[in-house]
Design brief:
This protein is of the alpha+beta class. It has eleven helices and twelve strands. It folds into three domains: 89 residues, Winged helix-like DNA-binding domain superfamily/Winged helix DNA-binding domain (Arc Repressor Mutant, subunit A, Orthogonal Bundle); 87 residues, SH3 type barrels (Roll), CATH 2.30.30; 81 residues, Alpha-Beta Plaits. Helix 1 crosses helix 4.
């Protein structure tokens, strides 16, 4: 549940998402409409907190008597705000008659299976709790029970995943971080408190320290998606058809993405620094032949092998 002061921060940012500038009075009115405190002193404090605590560039033009907000450097907060703006719209839909709802359609996978577990898992993360989960993989007809301590939640490709430490019941091996798909969790039961710094005692953490990675978030820093290749970071260069440039720029594949300028006007090249994995290959194949792997050679050969295997199905 979002606290009132956090909600007020989000409402102000969401307000600026819908307009380039706003006066002090307009900000007050927006908070008032959302049934939040909107006194002069409160709004001044909220604006200052957005600057000092959230790092937003909120500037005031004394001539026009308006505020402008630059949220480009706050990727996570901006993403949360976008979700809140969308959720406000979703909550308003029931107020419309059914005839108007015929003018909107949602992707069947917009809300993925297993999202009802998000609250319990996130609470366990914040309270450092063990969970007992009943989990059924897609490749088996029977479920298994695991004792886990969740570390991190990640959404990818309209699915939610949980990184968690799994306790080996037979104690044959040390606690190990494992990825679980929320859509395969049958049930969740909260248990007792977990030991402090359990993640820091794992073998994975010891390996991460050598690369100056210290949090569960860092595990996903150098990969696309959620599949772990257990490989080193490589420079990946991809050449797209020129017409693909606007799409790749608008939705970068990875935070390390950068454009490579060439003399060829018919192509658009990018460079990524990632650990090549199945999710990267899936993205490449999804381009329907409009992209070519330039390097590394190992990734290029793997993609070629998959394409040849696919072609063999049509040669039969």
């Amino acid at each position: 549940m979002v606290k009132k002061n956090e909600r007020a921060h989000f409402e102000i940012i969401a307000f600026f998402k819908r307009r380039e500038q706003a006066t002090f009075a307009q900000i007050q009115q927006q908070l008032k409409c959302k049934e939040l405190s909107s006194s002069k002193r409160t709004v001044e404090r909220l604006i200052q907190e957005l600057r000092d605590e959230y790092g937003y560039k909120l500037t005031y033009d004394s001539k026009r008597m308006t505020y402008t907000l630059d949220a480009k450097d706050n990727a996570l907060e901006s993403h949360i705000i976008n979700l809140m703006v969308a959720s406000d719209f979703m909550r308003s839909l029931p107020d419309f008659s059914k005839k108007w709802l015929r003018h909107i359609s949602f992707d069947e996978h917009t809300v993925s299976k297993g999202v009802h577990h998000l609250s319990d898992i996130f609470q366990a993360i914040t309270q450092n709790l063990w969970l007992e989960i009943e989990y059924q993989r897609y490749d088996t007809d029977t479920s298994k029970t695991h004792k886990i301590m969740p570390l991190f939640l990640k959404e990818y490709n309209n699915r939610w995943y949980m990184l968690a430490i799994i306790r080996d019941a037979k104690q044959q091996k040390k606690d190990t971080p494992v990825i679980f798909g929320l859509d395969r969790i049958v049930s969740i039961e909260p248990l007792e408190k977990a030991p402090k710094n359990l993640f820091q005692q794992t073998e994975m953490y010891k390996k991460m320290q050598k690369e100056k990675k210290i949090s569960p978030f860092d595990i996903f820093h150098d990969i696309i998606g959620v599949s772990f290749p257990f490989d080193t970071v490589k420079e990946v260069v991809l050449s797209f058809e020129a017409r693909q440039a606007p799409y790749i720029k608008a939705q970068p594949w990875h935070h390390s993405q950068e454009e490579i300028r060439t003399d060829n006007k018919d192509e658009f090249r990018i460079r990524l620094f990632v650990q090549p994995n199945e999710d990267l290959i899936t993205l490449i194949l999804a381009q329907c032949g409009r992209v070519k792997v330039i390097k590394p050679l190992s990734l290029k050969n793997e993609v070629v092998a998959i394409l040849k295997k696919a072609m063999s199905f049509y040669d039969r």
